[in-house]
């Protein structure tokens, strides 16, 4: 996002008008305010320049050849969806229908020609302030969202995010039949690891294991989460049990490759994992509980059969 506060540079104003003398007048007025200026001579050019420069505000004429301001404003909303566009329309059209249309297509403000320069100056200032505030709020929201959904020790998704994603993916299953797999990993004899090496070393170890698991998944839709203390969950959309076992094998070998010494482990001199895998292809109102319980049972069996293994 192009926030002027981050860039510590003056706001960028995009002037869009087919009338060259009008562009010159607007440019002079905006430069006088200390803003940076970019120009476009019609709606089509405006879309290209908007995409390239992400201006802080657009001063948009209505009547232009090639693509008029109303169409351009509509296109801006759809092409760059997700955040409001700071569009101020400046036009000779002052009838009610034109004003209504401008706001309907997403303009935030409207100024008629001939321009009352003192008014335009204040309107631009106020719009820039509003958008600056909006962007700061957005950034604060995103930071909060990251905090609320990630685990502070490992930076992986936390349990809340895992639950959210699992439900979202199960909803998708309700619409399209595609397998969804869950891989549950639990560190073997981790209590004795803490007892032997100390809690801080235990934390470091969990961070390394988390990274090794994250390295083992490839698709952007796969989600790796810290499920509990020394338990990790990996959700694999569009993946059947066979594919999930391959991921589980990769996870186990990546963790072994860390060669984390664990001399008090009853199995090996290095840290190992036990893994439970479960898959589903159908949506059911209790699919979430069923999938977790199936993976949990498989994990329990992996422990019971001697640990350091994968059970499906
Ligand atoms: P098993 O092979 O049966 O899984 O044995 P275990 O010792 O790993 O299982 P148990 O559930 O008894 O112990 C888990 C340990 O994980 C106990 C707890 O102190 C430790 N643990 C949980 N969360 C953290 C953490 O954030 N940091 C550290 N250092 N240890 C943690
Ligand atoms: Mg015009
Ligand atoms: Mg455990
Ligand atoms: Mg354990």
Summarize the model shown.
The protein is an alpha/beta fold and 312 residues long.
Q: What this model shows, in words?
A:
Pfam families: GGDEF, Response_reg. The strands form two sheets. A five-stranded parallel beta sheet has the order 2-1-3-4-5, sandwiched between helices. Strand 3, helix 4 and strand 4 form a beta-alpha-beta unit. Helix 3 packs parallel to helix 4 and helix 8 packs across helix 9. It is of the alpha/beta class and 312 residues long. Bound molecules: 3'-deoxy-guanosine-5'-triphosphate and magnesium ion (3 copies).
What percent of the residues sit in helical stretches (DSSP H or I)? 40-55%
Mean pLDDT value: 93
Stretches where pLDDT falls below 50 for ≥5 residues? 1-5
User: Main beta sheet, described?
Assistant: 5 strands, parallel
Strand and helix order: HEHEHEHEHEHHEHHEEHEHE
* Individual helix count: 11
Biggest sheet, spatial arrangement of strands: 2-1-3-4-5
Strand content: 15-25%
Query: Would you count the extended β strands for me?
Result: 10
Structural class: alpha/beta
Q: What's the N-to-C terminus distance?
A: 44 Å
Features:
312 residues; alpha/beta; 5-stranded parallel sheet; 5-stranded mixed sheet; 10 strands; binds 3'-deoxy-guanosine-5'-triphosphate; binds magnesium ion
